[in-house]
Structures are given as C-alpha cells and as structure tokens.
Amino acid sequence: QVQLVESGGGLVQAGGSLRLSCAASGRTFSSYAMGWFRQAPGKERGVVARINWSGGTTYYADSVKGRFTISRDNAENTVYLQMNSLKPEDTAVYYCNANRGSANYWGQGTQVTVSS
Predict the structure, then answer these.
(1) What is the DSSP string of 15-60?
(2) Burial level of 74, CB count in 10 A (0-12/13-18/19+)?
C-alpha cells in the first residue's frame, strides 16, 4: 500500500511558476514509476508527466513539453513537478500517481489555477 499526499498547488498568473510535490509513504517508493495527471472541469483525467523508478526515463504530454519538469528523490520518497510558463489552460486538479505492475495508487489532488 502506498499513500500519496500532494502539495504546492495554488493561484498563479499566466507566465508564472509553481512546484508541486508528492510525498509517498512506505519503504518501496523507489520501485514505483511515478506520474502526474490532471483533470480540468468537464474533461477526463489525463497524463501530464511520468518518471521511471530511477528517474532516468521521463515522459511528457505534448502540451507541457519544454515548460514542465518531473523529478524524484527516492531518499525523500518524493516526486516533484516544476511548472514554468503556466497558461490558463493548465488550470486543473493535479493528481500524483504511483504505478507498479497492476498496482495503482492516487493522491487526493491539488488545485492549480492560472489566471489570464
């Protein structure tokens, strides 16, 4: 079982930056691939970025490439999402995800609102 707690969301003006954090419980954090997903009102939840267990491989949705950076600190059981050059269309609830095989865990989400 993995418990995930996101933090760092908030209200920011377009062009600004935010850094999301996701703290994970348990001693097996380093064995999980981690990801950030987001869900805007009236839309389905979709992947934003993912990172493998070691941090050596990352994936980004086309809409955030070059603006967002995912990273992890296995010693601190934490995954981060640095978000720069934010746009109003980035407004959503951001969720942290841990995945290992068929095991899939979600955090409660953190709201990010970008004003124009």
Answers:
(1) T--EEEEEEE-SS-GGGSEEEEEEE-TTS--EEEEEE-TTSS-EEE
(2) middle
d(CA 104, CA 74): 18
Task: Please state, for a pLDDT cut of 70, what percent of the chain lies above it.
Answer: 100
**pLDDT (tens digit, 9 = 90+) per residue, 67-114?**
999 999 999 999 999 999 999 999 999 999 999 999 999 999 999 999
Tell me how far the alpha carbon of residue 75 is from its chain's centroid: 18
